[in-house]
Amino acid sequence: MKALVLEKTNELALRDIDVDESLGENDVEIAVKAVGICGSDVHYYKHGRIGDFVVTEPMILGHEAAGEIIKVGSKVKHLKAGDRVCMEPGIPTAEHSTTLLGMYNLDPNVKFWATPPYHGCLRESVVHPASFTYKLPDNVSYGEGAFVEPFAVGVHAMNKAKLNAGSTAVVIGAGTIGVCTAVALKAGGYSKVHLVDIKQEKIDYINSMNITGIQGYCCSLPELIDIVNKESDNWGVDAVFESSGAIKDFKDVIKLLCPNGVLVLIGMPVSEVSIDVVALQAKEVRIETIFRYVNVYKKAISMISASDFPFDKLITKEFNFDDSIEAFDYAANPKPHDIKVMINL
After folding, report:
1. Strand partners, 317
2. Per residue in 60-70, is it b (16+ CB within 10 Å) or e — as a string?
3. Contact of 259 with 284, CB cutoff 8 Å
4. Nearest to residue 190, comparing CAs of 163, 215, 210, 222?
5. Which residue from 249, 192, 193, 191 is spatially nearest to 220, judged by alpha carbons?
6. What is the arrangement of strands in the sheet containing 286-289, beginning at the earlier edge strand?
7. Max CA-CA distance within the chain?
8. pLDDT tens, residue by residue, 178-214
9. For a FRET experiment, which of 7, 32, 88, 286 has its CA 20 to 30 Å from that of 156?
């Protein structure tokens, strides 16, 4: 089938490729309709590896996808041909302890699309387990369906914070995941979310949407501390979600939090960071971490369907499948305000 193939570092080809997939009794075959470009896709394209995951042979890119079911396996009852769906891209092993304990995102043997050695979904069709395939409501487009994957990260981060409606938060980093986290928090009942980034154009774009309860700032962390203190009577926010991965010293981040607040670490730093343990203890701050997401896809889809938030505006650039190479070159050097680049098939 036709697919976007990463031949080697900095070399893409849109070509036919044989994929060894057959429809099992618990699987569905899906015609792919939309695929979002993730930062990890771009990183594999430009660098050929992420940590210990190295591209050593041609690999199809893409893991954020939605499409239409073509065929269903003999034991699949909850889905049928013609259903519009999105797909959770990581397939765990059923027997690993993490899966049995409900933490399948932590399975070290997970088969995750477009993570070497597994092919991704930027192709005409895929075969996928029905249990990791989810029907889309009529009011959720294919593009929004593909957006469920990064949005699920934000929903998982919100769940890990374990806070109630009416809480307040700071989200550091207005990339795709940071914006998804901020929107998930608002949809989940947070009363106020401060979103901070170093790119003025991105903050201007977020603020132009006039999202009630989400306010973007292009400022330093000390400046944000002053803003938060003024708004909260020097109390602080209930939660800080760090999605940039760029913080080296968490001293100022801790100052944003109220006593008994929670720090949720989403972004992955490329080097060691510094955290003042005494400052954490003095406020009894709780720290949570996340890795991808687990058991949140249905909730994420429901939140997108029920929300009045304009999710389509987070898709800031679209390309046709035949222009996939151009799409990746664009995603490698996006406009400052861009959030998500989408490829439509």
Report:
1. 341
2. bbbbbbbbbbe
3. yes
4. 163
5. 249
6. 214-217, 192-196, 168-172, 237-242, 257-265, 286-289
7. 62
8. 999 999 999 999 999 999 999 999 999 999 998 889 9
9. 32
